[in-house]
Amino acid sequence: DSALKIRVPNEEYQVKLTPGVSLLEGSCQKSPEVNDDGLHIKLRLKVDEYSASDSVIERLKVQEKYCFQCQSCRATLLKDVFKRVLPLPNGNWNTLVDDWCCHPDPFANKKLHPKQEDCLLGDTYILLTRDRSCDQSLTQTPGHKTVGVLCKKCSAVLGEAVTTVIKFYITEIVVKQSEDEECAVTQQQFLERSLASRLFELSSAQSIFRFSIQTPGGKSVIMLWLLNTDTLIASFSERVRSCDSLISASDHHLDEHQSCPAVCAVKVLYLPCTQAKHQAVNAWQKDITVHPLALPESTCEEILQLLTACTSTLPSSLRSMNSYQ
Questions:
Q1: pLDDT (tens digit per residue) in 23-37
Q2: N or C, which end of the chain has less CB nearby within 10 Å?
Q3: Could you give the CA distance from residue 104 to residue 110 in angstroms, rounded to a whole number?
Q4: Do 325 and 305 form a contact (C-beta atoms < 8 A)?
Q5: How far apart are CA 35 and CA 25, in angstroms?
Q6: Which residues pair with 127 in a beta bridge?
Q7: Is the dihedral of CA 267, 167, 295, 203 positive or negative?
Q8: How does this chain assemble (predicted)?
Q9: Distance from C-alpha of 198 to C-alpha of 176, rounded to nearest angstrom
Q10: Cβ pair 15, 262 in contact under 8 A
Q11: How far apart are CA 229 and CA 20, in angstroms?
Q12: Pairing relation of β-strands 45-47 and 65-70?
């Protein structure tokens, strides 16, 4: 395993690089000036092969048994085996039809619903047919325009219901191949990994790099620009941060030889959709290259908090670029 050692007076730090990653000798470059937040050093890394963990959308296969659990309380919601697992048209489908077709959209105002033993995959959700077992684990609450689906045990919002169809958002459910399969991650880590893996998949498959994180009703909450997906991050401070999550912290004090593994991360620019940013947000909303990603409003707010917390771990000089964070 490769490691990067940093020596300062009376102390030594060690960053353990992830497997398959090594430092290119002679690539170390110091910044010519020392900023208020310290000395910046740039290094080049060699990666043997990069791969991100798959999201739920990529893992679901036909003829496999799956157990769906609530992400908040881990209560089992349903078990199913699918004969068909099919992708839905992406979020910009209607706009593209309007721009490229010379005839009226034949699919306007029509919904694609799964049949029995079908699983339809959206960008941020899956569609399943409802069966009797759902009555034991799920409850519904009428909303202004949609019917919400909640976990009966903890009342967490999981998605929406349309007649006999259930829409589960991928950030709200855990999908396993057995109930006994372990999932030792916190809710924040789960949200972080779910979003990062989905951004990676969409950018790789469709060359999409700009996203609008929005509510199911179409209210934009965050404008997000994906820069790259092969970043490694390691952090040391007087209050050492946990390396399993970029936003959680622990009270461990520095030892003489403190080590910390470098963790994979995606690098993004983001813009909260506030009234002060109305002009920039309005320009993004009119751009058809911006891809909408719909999630529950509470989850959108959690993502904004996550991004803000991640940004706060960076040196102050690296926290913004023009009007973006």
A1: 788 877 776 666 666
A2: N
A3: 13
A4: no
A5: 25
A6: 120, 167
A7: positive
A8: Interacts with UBE2C/UbcH10 (E2 ubiquitin-conjugating enzyme). In vitro, interacts with cyclin-B.
A9: 18
A10: yes
A11: 16
A12: unpaired
Give buried/exposed letters for 41-64 (b at 16+ CB in 10 A, else e). eeeebeeeeeebeebbbeebeeee
Which residue in this structure is represented by tokens 């034991």? 136
**23 compared with 157, residue with greater pLDDT:** 157
Which tokens is 58 given? 């990529």
Q: What is the pLDDT of residue 11?
A: 77
Domains and CATH numbers, the chain: 56-176 (2.170.150), 187-318 (no CATH)
Q: Which two tokens stand for residue 195?
A: 């979003």
β-strands 165-169, 157-162 pairing: antiparallel
Question: What's the sign of the alpha-carbon dihedral 234, 240, 245, 246?
Answer: negative
**Residue given tokens 């199913």 in the structure block:** 80
Taking the C-alpha atoms of residue 174 and residue 56, their distance in angstroms, rounded to an integer, is 8
Residue among 262, 185, 270, 194 at smallest CA distance from 231: 262
Q: Which amino acid is at 98?
A: D
Reading the block at residue 324, the tokens are 């973006």
Strand partners, 169: 125
Residue 93 amino acid letter: W
CA distance 175 to 171: 11
Alpha-carbon gap, residue 21 to 49, rounded angstroms:
8
Give 146-203 as a DSSP string: SEEEEETTT--EEEEEETTEEEEETTTEEEESSTT------HHHHHHHHHHHHHHHHH
Q: What is the pTM of this model?
A: 0.80
